[in-house]
Design goal:
By secondary structure, the protein is mostly helical. It contains 1 helix and no strands. It is 83% helix and 0% strand. It starts with a helix and ends with a helix. Keywords: Membrane, Transmembrane, Transmembrane helix.
Amino acid sequence: MFGTEENVAVAVNLLSWGCLLAVSLMQWFV
């Protein structure tokens, strides 16, 4: 794990996109 701010920002972006994709998929299957 790197403690740089850039890596943290990238991780947050990936998590946010992952959450959006998960929500969209759940809406499709519901």
